[in-house]
Specification:
With 170 residues, the protein is mostly helical. The chain has a domain of 71 residues. It contains five helices and two strands. A two-stranded antiparallel sheet has the order 1-2. A hairpin with a 5-residue loop joins strand 1 and strand 2. Helix 1 runs antiparallel to helix 2.
Length: 170
């Protein structure tokens, strides 16, 4: 469309200049100067049309590219967050299952019912050490009573009667 407008503009300029030259053809010098002037006007007009066309084209390309890049960036960030969320959820479910499995183990349940029994203590200690060896990401695996009295721990080699945080403060 812009090229069509350019051709129409050139045609109008040429027609006007031709009639101007025909009416005022007094001398050859004057005609030559008029032709030179006409070619300058024509080149300036064509240059202006081309510059406007290029400005419009560059602006359209910039806007389209900018919106496409913005959408792509947003999509990639959403994908990244969703994948990391899924990874964290999977990890947390595994940890929850591991802790639930530890707390429901018969050795731990029996020991928590009778914490003074040394045979149950040894079984619970052995089970805790073996269980924590399977899951190296556990920082500390222990069984404790409700009153914050640590009963069993694996990675910190404490035993029955080790005071918890509440007992150390008093």
């Amino acid at each position: 469309m812009m090229v069509f407008l350019l051709f129409i503009l050139v045609e109008i300029i040429l027609k006007r200049s031709y009639f101007y030259l025909k009416l005022n053809s007094e001398s050859e010098d004057r005609i030559m100067k008029a032709k030179l002037n006409l070619s300058k006007k024509l080149s300036i007009s064509i240059s202006l049309v081309v510059m406007v066309f290029l400005i419009i084209l560059v602006t359209a390309v910039y806007r389209k590219t900018n919106s496409a890049i913005t959408e792509l960036s947003k999509h990639r960030m959403v994908e990244s967050v969703e994948s990391r969320t899924a990874l964290i959820k999977t990890y947390m479910q595994g940890v929850e299952q591991s802790i639930a499995g530890y707390s429901a183990a018969p050795e731990i349940v029996d020991f928590m019912k009778d914490t003074e029994n040394t045979k149950k203590y040894e079984k619970a200690q052995k089970f805790t050490e073996n269980y924590s060896a399977k899951y190296p990401y556990f920082e500390n695996l222990f069984a404790a009573s409700i009153d914050d009295y640590v009963v069993k721990t694996a990675s910190v080699k404490a035993s029955i009667g080790t005071p918890g945080a509440q007992d150390e403060a008093s």
